[in-house]
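User: I'm curious whether this sequence folds into something compact or stays loose and floppy. Could you predict its structure so I can see for myself?
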Amino acid sequence: MATAFSAAQRNETMERMANAHFDVLIIGGGITGAGIALDAVSRGLKTALVEMQDFAAGTSSRSTKLVHGGLRYLKQFEVKMVAEVGRERAVVYENGPHVTTPEPMLLPIYTDGTFGRFSTSIGLMVYDRLAGVKRSERRQMLNASNTSASEPLLRTQGLLGGGRYVEYRTDDARLTIEVMKEAVKRGAEAINYVRATSFLKEDGVITGIHAVDQLSGNDCTLRAKKVINASGPWVDTLREVDGSRQGKTLQMTKGIHLVFDSARFPLRQAVYFDTPDGRMVFAVPRDGKAYVGTTDTVYRDDPAHPQITEADRDYVIDAINFMFPDVHIGRDDVESGWAGVRPLIHEEGKGPSEISRKDEVWVSDSGLITIAGGKLTGYRKMAEMVVDLAARQLQQEFGYTSGPCVTKQMPISGGDVGGSAGYVSYTERKIKDGVALGLDRTAAERIARTYGSNADALYERMPDPRTKAELHGMPQELLLMLRYAMEEEMAVTPADFWVRRTGDLFFRIDEVRRYKSAVSTYMADRLGWSEQQTAAYAKELDQLLLEASGRN
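Assistant: Here's the prediction. I'll summarize afterward.
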């Protein structure tokens, strides 16, 4: 049975959770935790999830935004991971084509580059085979002339040719939100801004958590037979609380991305290219912008607030000008950007780019199940592995019988569009529906493409024609998106809306600046904020704007 997922009903959600006894309680509301929640609840397990920030506020909104198989990991001979993760790309795409889309990727080959023509051809062929790539998306090898024609901005000096293959571009935060919404729709309880502070234990075995609501300051106790630590960069922190931080530990690395307007960097297609120091970087066009990244440096500071440093910014700009010498990108051309932290499993003697992205599950003596490492693309398989383990333990200890994983062919929220085959025609129908209701085509297309089969839920919130959306000081489609985010996606603060529900802080930063006051006023009125809360949330968003634009 579906439960509420509304910002206005957080207190009721918290009360229900405090009065229940769950089979599985997940700590961490990124893509891994969301995937575990969906897998568990769809097997019939009574499931709850808490997140100390907003959903997807950590790594899951600050990735390269690609559901990719990890071509570069073939160089490290991680064949099994490439095969598993590569095959998952198509599963993620089919279950949510509104948040994931094929992205042709160009790998240029240079005389001084990492890859040669032969090794690239062989590598891409192996990649296609391992990842089970369908025939229409298999690699093509190009000569120098065709490579330049594909992306005219590429450096021509030393260009030998290129390989074109298909990756998948995603909105990582919205993917996380859609998975979470599907879990909630199926009966899971999920809440943001609730921090686990300690574990409940009986005879040394974990039976729940003590937690605090970060917004109200209220304490609560949540009980569960199994507690799963899926907190990403914070998994070692929770293991310390449990007294089980021993053996393998995390090594955090930081990656940053910069965003440019396409008028300044008119990238025609996505490119995966060498940097002067031998690393590989993505440049990806998206909605009239181009974003480039990522860096890979050891990170030891607060994982909740990674920053883009001048050195980070210069590294990416230098990489752009090395590969695209005629664009002459400078610091003032940066519109926006983001920094994220990768929670990798530490490997002695290896540099940040050499550390494996594999995932592992650890179980402590108290019963805490921890999932560490991994990649965005593999979230569903990681969830399956963790829930398989929890289900076995529940069967052994309590006699529970739950079914097998059923998420492989389960559309996520918004994904009921007929799969990839039906997505284009479905979207066109929804665009026409929006236009018929009074939206212009651009606004209707934005809603249809962003929300998939949930577009109707936004259209149902269309105001009475006699009541102008302009009264709230924002365009009609933005008001629809805001209402839906608050009422159906538990967006609690302006930052939740602008960063995790829309991604506008990164890709429509001018829209954020233009309508931030209107959005804040609307949320304050609907959620009953005090003047102090309103001011604090406004200050938080202003700080994020400064950090994103590089003016902090």
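Summary: Residues 379-398 form the longest helix (20 residues). Residues 38 and 183 are 4 Å apart (CA to CA).
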